[in-house]
Amino acid sequence: MILPNQIASLLRQPKTLSLSQARQAHALLLTSGLLPHLLAPLLSAFLDHCATRHAHLLFHYAPDPSPEAWTAMVRGLARHTLFADALRLYTRNPRAPAAPTLCTALSACARFPAPLLGRALHAQAVALGFGCHAYVQTGLVDMYSKHGESGLARQVFDEMPHRTVVSWNALVALEIRGGNLAQAHRVFDEMPERDTISWNSLIAGYAKVGNMVMAMDLFEKMPIRSAASWNSIICGYIECGDMELARKVFDEMPERNLVSWIAMISGYSKKEEVGLARELFHSMGERDLASWNAMVSCYAQNNHPHEAISLFREMLQSSGLEPNQTTMVGIVSSCSQIGDLLLSQWLEEYINRTWVEPDDYLITALIDMHAKCGSMNKAHSLFQRLKGRDVVSYSAMIVGFAIHGLAKEALMLYDDMLAANVNPNRVTFIGVLTACNHAGLVEEGLSHFGSMISYGIEPSMDHYACMVDLLGRARRLEEAHDLIKSMPMRPDAGVWGALLLACRIHGNVELGEIAGLHCLELEPDTGGYYVLLSNIYAASGRWEDAQRLREVMVERGLMKTHGCSWVEVRNYHEKRTGLCLSGQGQGSRATM
User: Fold this and answer.
1) More confident site: 573 or 111
2) Within 10 A of 9 (CB to CB), how many other CB atoms are there?
């Protein structure tokens, strides 16, 4: 139990407090009347534990927050990448901000695409007499450089009476961001003094473009290396796709920080090495929210949705951390893969309880989840809530409409998307072609397929499979075969399988045999192709050929994959196969 006379000293070191202790401190400050005097460090304590909602409520109900409290709140939100919230809060400050608060706002604005607001902050700095304040000027150089306004960044730098190493670093970062590594190196050489950030920026610049020779050369010359220096090299090798060298550097690090671990987990995730990522995650001593998020994202992005949801539950129960919107995007994505309607409803209720206004990334993930769970009305309602609709949100809706047979709605939304000057991507065209397939719109499908190149998109294997299926269902089998022969890449079993299925439907033995033999060559252990080709032979009276394929299946121990359905009964959700109906016991399952 924390005593009132210990609160002030403890809050001066908020990272030593657990979330539970911070809540105890809050209660004691309320009863002792000390809350107005210690509001700023208490806010920092909650924000250090990612309890942004608690901090929001605490700040909102404070009668007259001090300048320090405003700074703590803006800085804490920005530290959790809630830049829009940080800037929104900053603009609501009724009194003139102190220089530290203004610097924090500039830092948030640098990481948020709001150049007009950035210029307004510059004007405010001049009006308040902070125009020559070293930290404010450095913040302005950094902000303008990150907004791509190199002329203004250089102008502020040239007008600085006293240039610190921080302002020089901002100029180096400006040149690196503009892709001018040679100029960045020249500025680096001109610097009167350098710190580890100077070295790290240039190392990271070379590593980002894959020039690991120069990056390692600078790394070897560094007088003092920080964890960030090692992390830059690790990230460079990860970007180059060389996880072996990245792991070698990671293992050689004298002292690792959370960024080191997260970078490696993310690197393994990109390489689909889920087991190695999991091994690293479980060997971490201390885990922050970003490390949990990295592992959740690894599971979600590599088709391990059940593991992602299980890890999310573990985080809620054992870590004491509150998930942020990044966490929820990964969990919502996992729910989309499972197609669990009940879980999707619980997740949305949880999100609505936790965040007053979810951001567009999270809303887009929810749209995708509801669409894949079959709740198109809910998905469309969320789509209407979006402040800014991008290609991802449009594509999620178009694909959702298409896979549920709502071809008209999918194609109308595609037209709306083009009218809004949003260019389609590969996923968009999957949805459009699927919609045309469901509606039997062959000519329209061919037109959309032909238009892909005008948007700089080369059709992928999936697009060709959609078109073969579309032509095949319309009995245009020779055209489908010609399309396959014209493909720039080797067709896979999915493409040939679409033609094989169409030949089975329309009884074309000659093309069916061609497609079937290709399928068996590419995927000899998939029983479904044997069955389809056998059925084509049987329908044409070639009983010996049909029997031969059945015998091959028996010899190889192959079976046709059963059809499956997702069925929910009394809150039980599972994918079942077969032909039985079971209704026994508590939480009975209906299976088809």
Assistant:
1) 111
2) 9
